User: What shape does this take?
Amino acid sequence: MAAEAPAGSATPAMPEAPAAPESRALPEAPTLAEASAPPVADDLARLLFEGTHRERRHGVWRRTISGPAFSYRPGLPPAERTALSYDRLRLLNDVLADPERFAADPHRLAALHEWIGPVDGGLTTLASIHYNLFLGSLVDHDHESRDLSAFTALRHTGTFLCTELEHGNDVASMETVAVFDRQSGGFLLHTPTPGAQKFMPNTSLTGGPKTAVVAARLLVDDEDQGVFLFLTPLSDETGHLPGATVRRLPDRTGTPVDHCLTSFDRVWLPREALLEADHGRLDRDGTLISDLGNRRKRFLRSINRVTMGKLCMSAGTLGMARAALTIAVRYSHSRLIAGPRAGERIPLAAHRSHHSRLLDGLATAYAMTFLHRAVVDRFAAHTEEDREEVERLTAVAKGWITWQARAIATECRERCGAQGLFPANGISDLTANIEGGITAEGDNLVIWVKAASEMVFGHESAKPEALPAGGLSDLPFLRGLLAQVEAIWQARARAALREGPSGDPVGRWNVTSGAALEMVSAHACLAAADAFAAAADQAADPRSAALLRSLCRLFVLRRLREHTGDLLAEGHLTPEQVRALPKTLDTVVADLAPHMTTLVDAFDLPEELLSAIPIASGGTIVRTMPAPPPPPH
Assistant: This one.
């Protein structure tokens, strides 16, 4: 049923069908019909927002975005919207007692992005750059003797200059150089070609003075020592500093940010501008001392904050997806359309064609959230021994979460019909803002291709020796099937790589990449399902545990649906199970349909925020408009 069916339309006549079975009791008991009490939403929120850490990591940002300073501002032109995002960045900074410690805490840093994502996409970008890429890079290097007060007090906003116009995902090939000047002991920062201009940093004068961390190739006596970071002032209260050329780029989609092209003409930097740590320190005589043996490793360590940036970007889009679902589910219950009987009005949510799509999004959003929690935990606790594995997991999760967020936001916008097209209804801008997250900190497809190439032989799938006993209603059995899907695609990728054209590396990868990327997708879904099931096991209320397991079942069944042919061919599913899958899915959806409001209430978006969104608070955009003036006499 279309979201904007004419008010007078009638539900199409349908043939009589056998009565649908009543909701079945889940194996975990009690029935889902008992799972709508407020304590259930509270327990779900506790699980979604990290239990005992909820207040410290999430509470402060939830309260902050509740204030009027973060409410929607209609009619602002791009320049004013950008300036507003900088003003809001300072409001965030006012909340922080210790920005340095904050930048060093992956959990709190990611949580910030979850809450600001839905209210200001530009702010989400600025916060990620200032706190993670800029301040985080300073904190991760030797900084004990460095005065960071200008940046922690936001007298200077920090920015990060790495990508170049002709060097995006191949930033290891960047051309910007910092030449060691023996006479002064400092460096000359220089952009040697037009293609070496730094692409898209927020380096304009909007928002006040800026200081950058610039990635540049360190040259000592014409010898390339690899890429390092250099602290570089860009502007002060009077304008850009000599030697720095900044050109504003055209407006892009999504909430505007002051993206620019930036270049340097032999800008002198003092010796302390070089950010040093164990991976690279420069003696006074120009000798590099490093615990890493090659330039590539030194480069990756220098820009290590890009990995945390993937967690920030996925967190921002995760918050946007949850907001889109909250708005769409609320609207589905308040928007009334013609029912099957004359004069009857029923909510959109009554229709399976409508609520099944929202429930698919809800199941995915819960899986995304629990996966993100698990990955941030791994990242926060990683050691040198598992660094590469954790970085790969972070890249896989970032690609999967941001792609799912876009699909959810698009679906929710459509389910809100024409009302969803108005920015004041809080949903139309989300998809464009999510696009930025998909591309930032590594374009999704590129980082998945890298992960796929590593996982073909460098990863063992978690398939069980034998599938657990059970059927389509049993989570362990369904989880085993999902693991088999990953193993099937890994086996195909390995076979393709072995059989590919010899002497043609590109050709061999071309015949391998399709299967390898399917393997990565299955791996992401399996990791999300495992995190989901683990969260359900932590539920304090048996009703919320039952609800989570049913939602997890829906998530896994949807992922298995497109792989039934492979599973049937390999003997993991029977023909009867394949035939039964659509009805099983429909039964799970029917069980969950009465609980959509509970599921979005657990997302805990502030009522102050939702009450300002017309379709999330029982109204429409028309009801928020002032009445027209009376006609003249």
About this structure: The first helix runs from residue 38 to 48. Residues 1-31 have pLDDT under 50 and may be disordered. The chain is about 50% helix and 10% strand.
